[in-house]
Batch of 4 targets.
Target 1
Amino acid sequence: MKNVSVIVPVYGDWESLSENIKHLKKYISRFSKWEVLFVNDCGPEADTLELLILRAIKGRRNFKYFRNDENLGFVKNCNRAAFELCNQENDIVLLNSDALVTKGALQNMHKILYAQSAIGAVCPRSNAATIFSVPMKPKPGTTYTMKESYKIYKKIRNKLPEYYESPIAHGFCMMIRREVIEEYGLFDEVYGKGYGEENDFCMRIRQEGWKCAVANRAYAFHYKARSFTEETRTEQVRKNEMILDERYPEYRGLIREYVANTHEPN
């Protein structure tokens, strides 16, 4: 198996990012051959974030900081990091700055990435990852805090298979084989600031015979969309879903089929 480059695109929200860094420092050793990249995309707080990030990762040789010359948007930022900034021999993880990995999560995802030769992308379980959330099928009108979700997850974790094959992998924490992005690229920049780009990527590689999987022994917390206003997010989602549906009319049916056929223990 290859080593891994964990890419954390940064725009704002130091509160979440500071926790993100703490978790990565806790679960990726300073002596690891894995690297972690924080890529500042020049948001409104770029200078402040730069100082805070550099202070937080000081002394960690495998934790690296980069800053774009201008704001590229989420999709271009990810592409630049994957093809220009990180070790080009490594598999990659795209990790949102508002995502917090738990013990062994990234290592288990890497194990599942190589569980089959055709698996190209893997994500973990989470409190907020659509069809990969725990509980997967909540009672109507019921919401769960991060702690409640994790409590349920720990209860059912060992009853689950090591992984499920899935039509997509969630982009908040997605591990991808290097050979896949070398052959098919990463994100289509038509998706701009983000939302839907990972689904497009997964559907594109699916058409080429690759599979996605969710690692059931891996869990990451997700604060979800703190860097953008609700108005900005809603418009971006609407626009990008239209693109996705037009390109892949089978997409929604595959999601429904996955949910209908996946039965989890209580």
Note: Strands lie at 4-10, 35-40, 63-67, 91-95, 99-101, 119-126, 163-166, 173-176, 211-222.
Target 2
Amino acid sequence: MFPSDYLIQKYQQNVPRYTSYPPANYFCEQSIATYKQAIVESNATAPNHISIYIHIPFCSQLCWYCGCNSTGFTNRTAITEYLQNLHTEIRNTIQLLDTQRKISQIHFGGGTPSLLTKKELYDILSLFSSHFSFTNTAEIAIECNPANLTFAYIDELASIGFNRISLGVQDFDKNVLTTVHREIPNIPIPKMALYIQSKNIALNFDFIYGLPLQTSESFAKTIEKAITCNPDRIVTFSYAHMPSLKPLQKKIDTYAMVTGKEKLKILYTTHNQIVDAGYISIGFDHFAKPQDELARALHEKKLHRNFQGYCTRESTGQVYAFGSSGITQLSHSFFQNNKNYTEYNKAIQENGFATTMGHIRSHNELLINTMIEMILCNNIIDWKTVATHCNLSPDYVQEFFSFSEIKVAELLADGLLQKESYGFSVTKTGAFFSRNIAAAFDPVLVTSNKLFSSSI
């Protein structure tokens, strides 16, 4: 059932996306020495597997909607210099890691990492493969812009071990892409998808809803076309219009944007379309085929979430990030590199590392993170499971979150939560407001003056 106008109006609030807890805008200055010590200590902390994130900030054309850390470039000299410093950072970090640990995931994000040549990608991968072994199901993934992707490049990716490609489709409507300054692919995406799948490479489609000119009807056509391409996963991100943080967004025609009820209608229609096609809804923006590891993890209540999206404990270990703006996600701490790629280059050349910001989590923050992750990933609030994970008693956990009792009562009354023997479950309607539900268990948000995107 589509949420009522009352619910839409009440819960259209600015709340964190909770890709981390606390969110990245709560990070404060951290020293390189603290970062290096945390890396060493992480070798003895579960999970033992290593997940690698590589940030490539360069784009051939900057999209106006983009909230990622990216920069335009006019020649490859800047890329070459950046990669030299990236190699240095990786080598220096490897010296701090226990090479008996196994790599379970390498993810190239951006920017547009598909701008790198086969050799440039291979050289980065070799830095890791020459020191570490990989798990049997290790994922080597890359985000690609369909506009600069060719069949030959797909062959090259397959030849050096990539087994997952995320296509940033955003929308199949060329008018929508043009109005947000997004390049138009030369190769039809259905043909591209078929070719990727013929190479036994898992395929993700990424979309953004809430862009100018989109309507629930037009986006439904986009999703219908996506489903016929049969990708393994479909991701639908909500566009966050925050021009004070992302100046390029000032170029966007806000009068042509959908907001509030119409935007939620797009999400609602999209959700039903994809689920009706046989996909499993993962959290609030991911969809996967039933045999996908994310779908299995959801069924087993073992789903997790980090800055790269949804993951499983088995496939994703502690995340070690490299490149400008990369966020390393350890069991008890976060560390972020300099966001400006020229400053990143300078820091690596002078210090061998580029850490600037981060956060060391307290015991209470780890408890809150466990609760919020359970809500966003597994759609439940299970006092006993949270207590077991944090080595606490269920009574202590319930007492700690007693500040949320009034808000929880509202969520129950509004039909977003349902009482269960173990605690609460998120209802089908509540799933569309899962960020709001998570925020009810965040004590810091009560007094926060930070900027967050709308939950709808």
Note: The longest strand covers residues 133-144.
Target 3
Amino acid sequence: MEIDQKKPLSSIIREVCDGWSLSGSEQFALRYADGPQLYITEQSRSEIKNGTILRLAISPARAARQLLDRIQSHGIDARLEALKELAKLSADPTFATEFISMEGIGTLARLVESGTHFGEMLAFTLTAFLELMDHGIVSWDLISLSFIKQIAGYVNQPMVDVSILQRSLAILESMVLNSHSLYHRVAQEITVGQLIGHLQHVIRGNRPIKAEMAHQLYVLQVLTFNLLEERMMTKMDPSDQAQRDIIFELRRIAFDGENDPSGTEKRKAMYTKDYKMLGFTNHVNPAMDFTQTPPGMLALDNMLYLAKLHQDTYIRIVLENSSREDKHECPFGRCAIELTRMLCEILQVGELPNEGCNDYHPMFFTHDRAWEEFFCVCIQLLNKTWKEMRATAEDFNKVMQVVREQITRALAMKPSSLDQLKGKLRGLSYSEILRLRQSERMSQDDFQSPPIIELRERIQPEILELIKQQRLNRLCEGSCFRKLGNRRRQEKFWFCRLSLNHKVLHYGDLDESPQGEVPFELLTDKIPVSDIKSVVTGKDCPHMKEKSALKQNKVLEQAFSILYDPDENLNFVAPNKYEQYCIWTDGLCALLGREMGSDLTRSDLDTLISMEMKLRLLDLENITIPEAPPPVPKEPSTYNFTYNYG
């Protein structure tokens, strides 16, 4: 049938009901037959496209009343079916408004608080609750403490159904993001340690970890290490007896078998001797060694952890070095302080998370005291490397440079546990580091010679043009994007592609994600490339300025906008960083004659130039390339050797 957009929707529904001899047209509504099957309203009717299949259904108010009655019925099967249908319908804003007006959210909350629902029934209840709350009609601040405790209880259970765990975590996340008061309540119920248990299944699972999960693990790692910042920036107070007692404890554990002399002068002399053996710079008052930040008191915390939890290792390191010749002893105190500073730099303690970074280390999620255990592994490495280098006090900085390289190389291999880290470090001995340095230096020297640099400069424009054409070809193929609404769900799609002559951008809405290219005929809107003024990304995008800071972070790094005449904009949120964000921002910049500056372009440029240069240099294998071209010979004294024809 043909819908007259000028007629009220109620009149159209009445005509359909009359055609089917149905009375009470106000009890019916139109819904999409495919996709999310949303209700048609006066506000959304303009989005109906030619050929769209609609179906007549009971009105949202009537559906809400029926489902509310059914989910409170005594029959378990009837209640399960009702909750299943409710979970699906709750995504519809029109239905959600009606259901919420009937106190539906309160009913669902009471079902959860009762603790009588399990399995599928509970999963559908939590799904419906989350979908309804995501519409933003009801404030999260109205959620009761008993409901929070019940949801937290599902998360804290060691063995819980995956679907229930996912929905419980999603609800808690929404509470934290949308309510400052609920943030503190949730924090009281859920600890990081309880969440780490669930993360183990993700980190140690066989399935590859997706980019979003990797980023969240990285953020958690950064925030966990940032808890150390306070101690790292706290200077030791030499007059604080409690802090001085920690140093006394380090001495006592190391030299426990020796009796302190009775005289004050003799005791002071022995303390000075012991503090020297412990490797402190200030033998008289070692507290002064901890007055520099970073690492501040964090270094002392690490040393005490080693002395108490790994006592045999601590005593062995101290006594082993105290028995060496003075010039070859490894000063434990000085090394521990400098090592703590180095580890803080490597792991960027105190730095804010990088929005585009996924660089997390699985091993830090395998131990409750991962930082301290990491220090204990590294201090043993330092002691071992000191011996291998036969270092003296003058070599201290050289040893620390080698140890930094050993640690960074081992971390780059992403060991999954501290035991694996130890294995990687064993393979990175001082001799191995020297071998790697030599190999890299030779390779670098080859590529830094003037002829090679000149060849690279000649090749680069060709490669950049190749990358540019690839980006424009991808824009001509087009990409599908999700429409970003005010809620977490993103049901609608739209497609954008560049015309084959590179002069027009075509775009339009879709009912669902396409499987291939979308014909230009289906894309009803267009922007001439000549009208595009600029391309902006991240926080400069108009659709990012409107979002709250907390919700913005998830999509900020994948957002970009086209600004075009007259004062219009087309906003994008790419589904992933490299496949679409970099491709599209590069392609649009190429269209406007601007430099392609994405990470993907730099990576592609390095890869392609390297491959091209290796191919061109194959014929010169084992031939030494001179630093300068051969000299041009002098002109001959006469040109009598020329021959004149004719």
Note: The two ends are 93 Å apart (CA to CA).
Target 4
Amino acid sequence: MSEIVVYASFPNEIHSKAVNLDPSNWTWSPCIQISADRVLHFSSRPYAWLRYAIGAIVGAHGHLAITNTQSYTPVDYLAPSIPLDVLALYYHLDDKEKLRMFPIDPGFLHERITSSVLTARRAGFREDVLRRDGNLCVVSQVPGSYCDAAHLSAHAKGDKYIQVNTQRRARSEAEYIANVDDLRNGLLLHPFIHRGLGKNVAFLVTPNFAMETSDKGQSDLQCVAHAFIDDPYSLGGPHVRLGTSVRICDDLTQWPPQILFDLVYASAVLVHFGTPRLREQFSANGFKDQLYPQGVSNSTQAEYMASIEKRAQDDANTKSHNLGRGERGAKREHRDELDAYDMIMFLPYINVGAEKMMHTFKEAEERAEAAERAASVKKVEQWRGHLE
């Protein structure tokens, strides 16, 4: 089946964060490429889903049309299918939405793996998420002891990253998040779901600017899990199906805001259906500089800093265990500084090229993921065995 290409208009230049709204400064770029039958995998109203997907990607609300002219007619969002002769759609923004535009970072997923490491800074975060989500995975209902307190915006990205993303995309003050360990940046998830978050798994919240909760036009808030790959374990196991409802807490002031779910969904769409040109636009148009004002830290540095953070936590645990033991306790108070052991551990990497080091870390990460997945499968099977 032929594929549909969805275009969005991007500014050619942004000067001092100011956007020139003159039409001559805007260029149409292909963003999403997907077959019509694949869209039906996610929604019975394909135009509405495409509108939401491209809106989440560019960070602005607009309309789809089959023409790219300034005068256009929006498509029928209630249509159950897309005609075979429709091969291109254009996402139109008015001037107000063009000023709000803030596309998804192609690096949104990078270093997400480090977010599952429990440290002193994240211990309170996990406790808060467990309490809010009732000590059960919000999708698979697996007990919390088997689950991760997952960050929607990866912990390794830091506070500034979530601040800029939520500030640029927020439509109310309540949606702004200043701390990456804010309870509203977390969900209690089965490890398999956490691993795929923003890549193979995302959550669709309705109603949103493009979609209703159901074909009947209900207005009740609903959140459903979508898998972007055909893997029975992507949502936690064969018993969890595409479109399974996510359990939402009663107090919505403690629940993640719509814009965080949008970012995760946009990331998954980008991974599976995004064009190379879409990835280029983030850097070419100045958006990258706003999100990374100090430049992008590389993965090697992030991994090394995560190991230092873990050692600091281990030392903190040791200090707590030996509190009041005089000289030994006093010595541990200085372990936050790099010591000879730290330097010895890092020496083997000093003369290793960046590309080779990245490859080494990637292999180690894949081995760790495989081992963790096997262990998680065993735990869940044991748990389900007890239920039977």
Note: The first strand starts at residue 3 and ends at 11.
